[in-house]
Amino acid sequence: MASKRMAELPGTTDRRIDALLTLLAENSTIVVSGAKIAKEIGVTRQQVWRWIEKLRALGVRVKGHPRAGYHIERMPDILAPQMLSRRLYGTTFARRIYHFFKTDSTNAVAMRLGEAGEPQGAVVVAEEQTAGRGRAGRTWISEKSAGIYCSVLLRPGIPPSFAPLLTLAAGIAARDAAAEELDVLPDIRWPNDVLVDGRKFCGILTEMRAEPDRVHYAVVGIGVNVNQSKMPDELRETATSLRIETGKIHSRLELLIRLLRHMDRYYNQLLVEGAPPILRRFAEVSSYYKGKRVRITTARETFTGTTAGLEPSGVLRVARDDGSVEMVVSGDVAEVR
Ligand code: BTN
User: Fold this and answer.
1) Tens-place pLDDT, residues 4-36
2) Is the preceding omega at residue 191 within 30 degrees of 0, hence cis?
3) Which helix (H) or strand (E) holds 64?
4) Which residues, judged by CB distance below 6 Å to any ligand atom, belong to the binding site of ligand 1?
C-alpha cells in the first residue's frame, strides 16, 4: 500500500538543507566535492555554494577548499530530520519527521496535522518555539537550540480516560533517556515532570481530540531543558537543565534519538499489553508513586495527603489525612516536606 505523502507545511526546513547537513555531518572527516554535493542534494553544481551559504547562515561552520570541496568544521547539534530518521529506523517515529528552525508550538503544528488526517508516528521538532505551551495554560520557554521541543502524533484507539497513560509513557521515556546523561537518577513527579534533585528539566503536555469512547488522535509534546546555561530568575528555584546539573554540553540529537526509541517501546507495550508495563515502570522510577506526602492543587481545591499508587488508567490515588482516598485526574502535585 502506498504511504501517504508528507504534508507540505509552511516553514518546515528545506529538504536540500537537511540533505546537505546530513551529507556533510556523515562525512565530517573528509572534504566532500561540489559534484557529489550537487548530486546528493539534487541541485546543479553552480548552485552548491548558494546552499552552503544558506547552511552557514544557520550557524553551521563549513570550510571551503578551493577546487576540492567542503567540510564541516564542527558538528552542529541540529535535530536534522534525515539524521533522526536514519537513527530511528524500525520505530514508529522514523518516517514522518517535520523539522522547523522556528515555529510557534510543535504541539500546535502536530494538532493541525492530526486534524488533517496525518498518520500516527509523525514527529514535529523545532530548534526554537515562539509560543511553547505548558500545562494549565502556562508558557514553555523555548530558547533557540538549547532544548528539545518535540511533539509526536499518536492514534492509539484507546478511551480518553486512558490517555494519562500516554503522558506517563512519555515521562518515563524522557526519564530513561536522561538517566544516561546524569550522575544521579532522575525522578518523575506525577504525571509528567521529570526532575533532578527536585528541580524540573522536562515536561510533557498531552493534547487530544476525542469522542466519548475513543481518542481520535493525541499529541504528546515533550520539552527538555538540555543546554541552557542558566534559568530565568523566576524559575531558578524550581527548574534546571542537564547542562546546569552536569556542567557539560549534551547532544540534543543523541538524547532525542534515545527518548523516541524508549517512547516507541513503551507506546507499543501499551498497545499490546495495556497499562501494566507502564504502571510497573512508573512504580520503579518515581518516588511519587506511593508514600509521598504531597499537596494537590486541582481546579476545585487544594489538599494534602499521601500518594497511594495509580489506577489502571494512570490516575493518581491520594489518601487524605482523614483516610479517604481521592482520585486525582489532573492537577499540580507538590512535595510536602
Ligand atoms: C509542562 O508544562 O510541563 C509541559 C511542557 C511541554 C512543553 C513541550 S515543548 C514541545 C511541545 N510543544 C509545546 O508547545 N509544548 C510542548
Assistant:
1) 899 989 999 999 999 999 999 989 889 999 999
2) yes
3) strand 62-65
4) 105-107, 129, 132-135, 138, 140, 149-151, 192-193, 203-205, 221-223
